[in-house]
Amino acid sequence: MRAITACELTVRTVPAIETASGSPVACVDGGTDGATRTSRTPHASHFEHPGGTLLAHLERVEALLASWGGRPALRAAGLCHAFYGTDGFPLQLLNLEHRADLAEAIGADAEALAYLYASCDRKATYRTFAEDDGMLLDRFTGARVQPNLGQRRDLAELTAANELDLAAISPKIRTEYGASLLGLFTRWRPLLSASAWAHCRDVLG
Q1: H/E element holding 144?
Q2: Model-level pTM?
Q3: What CATH number does the domain containing 91 carry?
Q4: pLDDT tens digit string along 119-165?
């Protein structure tokens, strides 16, 4: 399934989601369509990010997941993966109290994955995440959770798409973090799709 552009969307406006800064975000129902519209908040298009803007990064991550054969929920999560902030990008576009609103806009599965990605305490989680009993430390609540295999694969795929987009577009990031990222994704190889792993090798060597 190819990426869907804003020009191709037939949008039905639903009650706006309030962003962390208090401004509304227009949304539509469901999946990649909803995520595409939701990610096009002025906030995402105004924030600088390696390679241009945060919006451009979100769209590249979605496109990368699509090129790897990612299902719509995973792609939608890719478009919205930074909405709650992340362990590596603290800016929060959407308050956590509006999780239900985002779920209505992009689908419950996609929102749950976006939250899982945002909540991950990377230092406490990454080292053993590929193991059968791999745990995730939720940085918002302090709780330790054990994602199932499908969730761990989704989180690994989304993480790879995010990091490989940045490494591909920024020689500085590739130089500073390429070796550690290659080590991480080598450990996570059992969780990654063949396409994601091949792209990892192409970008990181």
Answers
A1: strand 144-145
A2: 0.80
A3: 1.10.3210
A4: 999 999 999 999 999 999 999 999 999 999 999 999 999 999 999 99
